[in-house]
Amino acid sequence: MNGPINFNGKRALVTGGASGIGETAAKLLADLGARVIIADLDRDRLDEAAARTGSAGVAQGDVASEADAERMVREAITKLGGLDLVFNSAGIGDDLVPVHEQSVDRWQRVVDVNLKGTYLICRAASRPMLVQQSGAIVNVSSIVGLGGFPRRSAYAAAKAGINHLTHTLACEWGPSGIRVNAIAPAYTRTPMVEALLERKAFDPTILERRTPLGRLALPAEMAQAVVFLLSDWASYITGTVLPVDGGWSAFGGAGDVATA
Ligand SMILES: NC(=O)c1ccc[n+]([C@@H]2O[C@H](COP(=O)([O-])OP(=O)(O)OC[C@H]3O[C@@H](n4cnc5c(N)ncnc54)[C@H](O)[C@@H]3O)[C@@H](O)[C@H]2O)c1
Questions:
Q1: Is the CB of 222 within 6 Å of ligand 1?
Q2: How far is CA 71 from the centre of its chain?
Q3: C-beta of residue 77 within 8 angstroms of C-beta of residue 55
Q4: N or C: which end of the chain has fewer CB within 10 A?
Q5: Is 236 a catalytic residue?
Q6: Which residue from 72, 70, 173, 156 is spatially nearest to 115, judged by alpha carbons?
Q7: pLDDT exceeds cutoff 90 at 235
Q8: Which of these is catalytic: 119, 155, 187, 236?
Q9: Which residue, among 37, 35, 32, has the nearest Cα to 17 in the 3D structure?
Q10: What is the pTM of this model?
Q11: Which domains does the chain have, with CATH numbers?
């Protein structure tokens, strides 16, 4: 039986670590003893986020670029002296337009950042993990990756792809002691979602009525699930996509939860 969760001596890379779920998870990992490198495209926010999270350093680049992804993982390994844990939180959303109005370039970019970026970081991180025969990785899917969502075809396809990528990597790397899991969050009050709320892209009260727990999630509630899956408390869990969704994916009724 393991004692309370701690990451003393563990070396972690968090992509998308300059904001939202990634930043919150990076801080929790650091608070629990890990040495963390945060990687992000947004150069301006990286240093401030590193100070806020207590990270050991930063790496700037685009996870969708093979050269950048390889370099960022290399920089993390050099700064930390190795790599034990990866949290792939870098992601972008759709433009929320119908398919027939979608820009193909934007569609491709959403798939590339979310799905290809996750693949590239996992691939680069696997090299030291395969040598040391241990490691834990958590990817980020979404409730949008679990069912059909109108106006979200790129994001839905990318997140559904992450689910099966997670299953596949868990099967391929399980015999080498590497666990790979994903979380599937519902709407979480991060800068990404606050920006959508601000431009009235959706009505939060409709989402709240559709959610058994009756509210949107907080970033800390995602970070706690990520930390659990990265920890030894999840030592026999691999290849799972864990909904962290207030019951969203459990609800199969018509209309609102309260009136169904
Ligand atoms: N917030 C939600 O409601 C929600 C729900 C389901 C899934 N998710 C997923 O959670 C993850 C984090 O989202 P968030 O809400 O914290 O968003 P966020 O916008 O607050 O943070 C995402 C971070 O990723 C970085 N990023 C974007 N593109 C990048 C790239 N190409 N290379 C490197 N970094 C890049 C951004 O600069 C930003 O710092 C994403 O994968 C998102 O799809 C979020």
A1: no
A2: 20
A3: no
A4: N
A5: no
A6: 156
A7: yes
A8: 155
A9: 37
A10: 0.98
A11: 11-187+219-245 (3.40.50.720)
